[in-house]
């Protein structure tokens, strides 16, 4: 598989990862079936897409999961701010910035 394609797949999985969390919340413990189904489908899609670049011949599982988790963490903080009006402090922004810098650093040294 082309390395660029593996990175694109990982980026798509990383974007999907924080989206399922609000769907799960809106499902109200799966009482609202549509939201629950959306959450499950998004989780399964995310995991399937993560499995593609996780192959050691591509990016590898450690780097792939680290990037997915970092983008997911930063993404859910932003979603929390927009959807749930959670407060963003200077410290939160600092640490999210550190996550993003770490993701960029991993990408740069991974080739």
Protein architecture, described:
With 111 residues, the protein is mainly α. The chain is 77% helix and 0% strand. It is built from five helices and no strands. The longest helix is centred in the middle third of the chain and has 24 residues, at 61-84. The two termini are 14 Å apart. 19% of the residues are buried. The model has no long low-confidence stretch (mean pLDDT 92).
How is the topology of this model organized?
Blueprint: H1 3-16, H2 20-26, H3 33-51, H4 61-84, H5 90-110
Summarize the structure.
The protein is mostly helical and 111 residues long. The chain is 77% helix and 0% strand. α1 (3-16) runs antiparallel to α3, α2 (20-26) runs antiparallel to α3 and α4 packs antiparallel against α5 (90-110).
Rounded average pLDDT: 92
What is the number of strand segments? 0
- Return the structural class: mainly alpha
Q: Name the helix and strand elements from N-terminus to C-terminus, one letter apiece.
A: HHHHH
Morphology = flat
How much helicity do the residues have? over 70%
Number of helices: 5
Distance between the termini: 14 Å
Strand proportion, as a percent range, falls in under 5%
- Provide the gyration radius in Å: 15 Å
Q: Which ranges are low-confidence, i.e. pLDDT below 50, for 5 or more consecutive residues?
A: none
Oligomer: single chain
Major sheet description: none
């Amino acid at each position: 598989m082309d390395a660029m394609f593996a990175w694109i797949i990982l980026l798509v999985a990383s974007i999907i990862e924080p989206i399922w969390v609000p769907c799960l919340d809106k499902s109200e413990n799966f009482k609202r079936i549509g939201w629950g189904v959306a959450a499950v489908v998004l989780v399964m899609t995310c995991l399937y897409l993560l499995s593609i670049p996780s192959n050691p011949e591509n990016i590898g599982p450690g780097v792939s999961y680290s990037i997915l988790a970092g983008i997911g963490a930063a993404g859910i903080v932003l979603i929390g701010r927009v959807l749930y009006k959670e407060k963003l402090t200077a410290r939160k922004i600092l640490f999210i910035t550190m996550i993003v810098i770490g993701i960029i650093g991993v990408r740069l040294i991974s080739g």
